[in-house]
Amino acid sequence: MADHIKIRKAPGKYVVRAGGAVLGETSDALEVIEGDYPPVIYFPRDALAMAFLDASDTTSHCPFKGDASYYSIQTKSVLIEDAAWSYENPLQGMEKIKGYLAFYPQKAAVELL
Q1: pLDDT digits (tens, 9 = 90+) for 48-96
Q2: Cα gap 20→79, rounded to integer Å
Q3: What sequence ranges are listed for the domain DUF427 (predicted)?
Q4: How many domains does the chain have?
Q5: Spatial contact of 56 and 70, defined as CB atoms under 8 Å apart
Q6: H or E element at residue 84
Q7: Boundaries of domain holding 69
Q8: How many CB atoms lie under 10 A from the CB of residue 83?
Q9: Among the four 30, 69, 102, 106, which has the fewest Cβ within 10 Å?
C-alpha cells in the first residue's frame, strides 16, 4: 500500500444525495485519506440504490489505487455525468476499497448524519 494513503472505517453514519434523491445511507463507509487531499468517503455498493447509477465509458488510472470506473447518476429530473467512481480491481494493498464507490463533492452531497 502506498504510504501516503490511509484507509479506515469511517466513524458514524453517512448519506449521499444527488438530484433530489437519496442514493444511499450506511454505517459501513470507508474513509480514504490520501496525502494532503481532503478525506473521501467510500460507500459499499450494497448500501447504494444502484438503479440510479449508470456505468459510463469514462476511466482513469491512479498509480497507487489502480484503474477507476465511473458512474453517472440518473434521477427523474437530471443526469449527473461521471459523479462517482469505483476501483473494481484495486492494486495490491488497496483491496479494502473494492466494491465501494466514492462521489465528487461538486456532483453529490455526502453528509455525516
Answers
A1: 999 999 999 999 999 999 999 999 999 888 899 999 999 999 999 999 9
A2: 12
A3: 16-105
A4: 1
A5: yes
A6: strand 79-86
A7: 5-112
A8: 25
A9: 106
